[in-house]
Amino acid sequence: MNSLRTLLKKREMTSFFFLILLFAVVGCINPAFLAVSNIAACFNSSVVFVIISVGMAFTIMVGEIDVSVGSCLGMTAVVVGSMICNGASWALAFAVGILIGIIVGCINGFGVAIMKAPSLIFTLGVNGILRGLMFIYTNGADVNNIPKSFKDISAKALPGIKITYYFIAALILTIPTMMVNAMPTDIMTKTTDELKQAAILLTARNAGLIQPTKGKICEGGRR
User: Fold this and answer.
1) What phi and psi, each to the nearest 5 degrees, are found at residue 44?
2) 3-state class of 158 per DSSP?
3) How confident is the model at residue 39 (pLDDT cuts 50, 70, 90)?
4) Measured in whole angstroms, how far is the alpha carbon of residue 68 from the centre of its chain?
5) Residue 175 contacts by C-beta under 8 Å, 6 or more apart in sequence?
6) Alpha carbons 38 and 61: distance in angstroms, whole number
7) How do beta strands 143-144 and 216-217 pair?
8) What DSSP letter does each residue of 160-186 carry, written as one string?
9) Which of 39, 49, 65, 170 is the most buried (most CB within 10 A)?
């Protein structure tokens, strides 16, 4: 009972109860909203945002922010998409996409944790650089005609939920454990430079995990 009271006092529970209330109110107004197929569609349409937010959550927890994550995602998309269209192996394209996220994360982590630059200012600068690099890489053109077999990866579902959500569940379950084991300090009360570097790297790395699944990727990362 004491554990339940402690759980209910946590600030996160307010957001959780508000979410439940929101579902209930919308469901009363439109019962079709609570249909299993509709809820599954909501989950499936938010895969990209969930993967990004899993990494971003740790950056916010250590009191920093990364506003370059959208451009990091865009850079990954145009590079991986163009590689796939040009006949590169999927394994190589995946590895390059993840590597881009790791490199961007290391740069941001170095600037914020080592150079002591404000995370908002530094990552905003990196955001602008990445957008410029995207324009140079694509020469302002769209990346078109991504093979259907590649796009179908994210369309597979078990059962009704895209297979990428099972990957997200694995990320959510494993990443906190890995960070806690790697960092001896208390993540909620003491933020070391190493912890900041790890959190910011994780945000950009997750952006690098997202591969293009649409038929066209626009210059500048807009899909």
Assistant:
1) -65, -30
2) coil
3) confident
4) 12
5) 54, 55, 58, 202
6) 32
7) antiparallel
8) SSBHHHHHHHHHHHHHHHHHHHH--S-
9) 65
